[in-house]
Amino acid sequence: MTRRARLHPHVTTVTTDDGLVLLDERGGRYWQLNTTAAAILDHLARGSDPHTTAEHLVSRYGITREQAESDVHTFLEQLRSTGLLTSAPDDDRPPG
């Protein structure tokens, strides 16, 4: 079962015209997400798995499936490595 992406309670979000701003209240660090990254986070937070989220990027932006899957995977890894997530969807990308 795929888990929804959930930001830590210490992360505050503000929607902007250019995407989304995340504030990690523990250290006062900000992250600016562009509209693509904000869309990825929104899809994952609503329960989409990484593959389905990548398919959305393919249809919305006309990029290749490989690029979209790489973008979603990289974004998830960045959120994990910065400690902004309490949980994240399983990365069930097909191999290759």
Q: Could you explain the architecture of this structure?
A:
The chain has 96 residues and is an alpha+beta fold. Helix content is 42%, strand content 24%. It has helices at 35-45, 50-61, 65-81, and strands spanning 6-7, 11-16, 19-24, 29-34, 85-87. The chain has a three-stranded antiparallel beta sheet. A two-stranded antiparallel sheet has the order 1-5. Helix 1 (35-45) packs antiparallel against helix 2 (50-61) and helix 2 (50-61) crosses helix 3. The longest helix is centred in the last third of the chain and has 17 residues, at 65-81. 23% of the residues are buried. The model is unreliable at 92-96 (pLDDT under 50).
Helix and strand topology:
Elements: E1 6-7, E2 11-16, E3 19-24, E4 29-34, H1 35-45, H2 50-61, H3 65-81, E5 85-87
Antiparallel strand pairs: 1-5, 2-3, 3-4
Structure keywords:
alpha+beta, 3-stranded antiparallel beta sheet, two-stranded antiparallel sheet, 3 helices, globular, disordered C terminus
Structural class by helix and strand composition: alpha+beta
Number of helices: 3
Q: Report low-confidence residues grouped into runs of 5 or more.
A: 92-96
Strand content: 15-25%
Overall average pLDDT = 89
Shape: globular
Rounded to the nearest angstrom, the radius of gyration is: 13 Å
Question: What is the CA–CA distance across the termini?
Answer: 22 Å
Total number of beta strands: 5
User: Sheet with the most strands?
Assistant: 3 strands, antiparallel
N-to-C order of helices and strands: EEEEHHHE
Helix content: 40-55%
Strand neighbour order, sheet with most strands: 2-3-4
